[in-house]
Each structure stands twice: as C-alpha cells, then as structure tokens.
Amino acid sequence: MRKALQSVRQIKSALPYRKSNVINSFVRRQYFSTDISRGCLCELSYNGGFTRHNQPYYMSFRAMFADVATVNNGVETRGGPLVEYERRIAEGELLDGDACQVGTLQELQRLYDQLIEKAEDCRLDKYASSDKAGRSRWLWSRLMPQSSYAPVKGLYLYGGVGTGKTMLMDLFFDQLPVSWRKKRIHFHDFMLYVHSRLQKHKGVADPLEVVAGEISDESILLCLDEFMVTDVADALILNRLFRQLFSNGAILVATSNRAPDNLYERGLQRDLFLPFIATLKERCVVREIGSAVDYRKLTSAEQGFYFIGEDLSSVIKKHFQMLVGDAQPVPQEVEVIMGRKLQVPLGANGCALFSFEELCDRPLGAADYFGLFKNFHTLALEGVPIFGLHNKTAAYRFVTLVDVMYENRARLLCTAEGTPVELFERIVTISDAQNMAPRTSSRSRKNDDFDLCVDNELGFAKDRTISRLTEMNSREYLEQHAEMLAKKQHPEETRAENAVEV
User: Fold this and answer.
1) What start and end residues bound the annotated signal peptide (predicted)?
2) pTM of the model
C-alpha cells in the first residue's frame, strides 16, 4: 500500500504546475492575518477586493494522504513538504499559496522523495548506520582515504526578503524522519560552531578535516538558513570545509538572499573563495524564489516598541521598567562563546538595556549576540542612528544583531532617529549608486552626499533588516514572542497540553 501511495505521489509531483487562475472579487468584510513564521497569509481585518490563486487540481487529492505516516524500511515517513503545505491549505490554516512558493515546494518535494528512496545509500538513519559509525569518523578516513559523495544533490534556495524561504525550508525539515542524522541551524550559528570546534582541535595537523568529520558524522543532512558570507575568515574556511563535508557524503539545503555567484561579492581575497561557489553549484540544485511579495510587511498595524525621535532616554527607561515589572535592573555579565564575557549595563527578568554605542560601536559579533539572547528574551536599545559611511561598521553589527534577534524570536524595544527605511537610506549597492542621477554644476552638494555608503553586502542586507524590523514591530510577532515566553516559563503545563492533544 505504501509503495502504491508513494508512486501516486511521485507521478502527481511530476505533473507540471498549471498557472494560477487569478480571480478578482469583492467580498463583505472578512478577517485576514499573516502567519509570519510560515510566510503565508492567514486571517486580518480587511475590506474590499483581494486576489486569490487557485491551486492545481491535484492538490486536494494529495492532501488526503498528508496525515498518513507510514513505515518504510523500519523508518516512519510522512507525505513530504508539498503534501503538508496542501494539507494546511485544505484545513484552512493557510490561504491559497503563492505560485512561486509552490514551484519551490515541488523542488523540495523532489528532494524529499529522493532522500526517502536513497536513505540507506545516503547513510541518513543514525540507528541503521550505528554499527558502521567507526568507519565514518575522521580517523578512519585519514587511515583509508576515500570519497563518498551522496547520490542525491542538495538544494540552494535564494530570493528577496520575506518571500518565505525560511518557512519552506522548515516545512521540509519538519517532514523528515526523526531518526535521521540532520541539523537545521542559522548560518551565523553554524560558523560560530565551526570556529569553536577549530579552537578545540588547535594543534592537530589538520583541524578543519577533523571538524568536517565530526559535523558529517553527526549530521549528514545540513539545513543552513540565511547563508551569507561577509567575513574573510569564514570565506577562507568554507571552501575546504565543504569540500571535505561533501566528500564525506553531506547533503546541503540552504537559503540565502544572494545567488551563489554573488556570494562574498567584492570581498577580500575573493579569488580564494571562488572554488567554493563552483563546488556549491556542483553539489546543489540552485533555485530562485521569484515572489515579489514581502510577507513580513503584510502584518497588522504596528503595535510594537519602536520610538522615533531624539532625547527619548526617559521614554525607553519607562517602558523598560514596565517590561521588567517589580524586578530591580542591575548590571550583569553573560558568558558567550570560548569563555568570553559580555557586560550587560542593566538587566532584569529576561530584559536587557543597552545604548546603541555599547552594543554596536564596540568590537562585538554574532557570538556575543547569541550569548546575550540565550540569557535574555527582550532587548531595549537606545539611540539607533541613521547609517552612512561614517558608521558603516556599526551598521554591519546592527544588521547581525537584528538577524540574531529574529532567529531567537526576541522582542525589541528601541529608540531611533528614523523609521527602519530611513535608517538605511544612505546605504546603497554599487548598482544603485551607478543609477543615481549625476551631479550637475547647478546642484548643490548636501551634507548627506558625503556620508553616502556604497557597499554591496550591506546594501543587500539592509532590505532584510528593514523587513525584519517591520515584522518585529507587529502584533503577530509580539504574540508569537509571548507564546514562546509562556512555554518557557510553564514547561510542565505545555507538556500536559501536548499530551492531551495527542
């Protein structure tokens, strides 16, 4: 029966996707909202017309099997990401899907089906391969050098901000069998892990080979979110690291804002990074998500803690005290990676207060920010400035800070000199700069012209940061934060609720 269902699924997923029929209609007052974590529309207060995309005719057919979990070679498997996506639409959890997202889901479904079919050859099941674990470790590979590339290629998804890349990858990852050697991790966090392991194996003849062996032994399937390279140290490591990982049989699924050929563009010593791009394109199918919709900006009215203006110190301190309640804020110290300590000016009840200079004008990085949000769920940040050439380095740190906050679903209370868009108006890519109107003899030189920052990496990253700041200020995001916080504070109640649901 399982084989029959699998055959039907494969035949259906191979059928070409019919272009959506767009129907414009006017309806009485309805309620739509946005499920930001999944990148799709759900229910929000709205009047007037809307655009609806009809799904392919076979969606309802496939959705019938979405909840069917079957056992294949002793491993429980599900229907896959496309089937789960269709089930959520059929159940009313999501509205009709974005055609670009559905096309990408078909690629993810193809990969899912291949992995299920070739799970044994890929050595995905950690229990099935446990008797051979010794041979897969780095020491054995050094004694008996051999390459073992996976018979399945991975997938590299890239596209604009807010198009649902993370949601689609999570949908794929959540459908994979629990017994597989798999890991889903943010790229920043992954590189911090790599650097910490390299530090641990310092003194070994080739520590990078050891680290690659440890990673591939633990996780054959790597899902890396927000793949981006801005650091020269990371750029020099990635080529050898992934060459070794792929040689060990690793399979990569990654999301990024940048196409492979545009990674680390104009970076220092980029010629040493180019072989990695070639390897990436050889071992992964590259897929662009072309949706023009930024789902993060489809949130309800702003109800967050983003205050614009000058001399708002009293305002942020007042709201900070409201968030900490009766607790008394005091200076604290948190431990970050490799034994480093981060000084927190004021902290209480999971909330930390910093000035922008203390957090972004000092030599801090992703490791420090990850350490901060392992201890605090809310950040009050005072005095975010307009960014330009004079504070480009601080802008990079702010972008990283927002990325880490978003990954940890942290809450932001801040005062700033402008809206998220205004903060980055002076940051442009090389292409943007070339398209700017040329200066004429009659045109006066303004002060902000001197502060224009032409930087490709920062110019591309700013769109993601603006999008995330917009979402983090929405009602939906704050509700998700509150729900996450409640689960952490009352884990026993959460487990009891889950048990009742089961």
Assistant:
1) none
2) 0.62
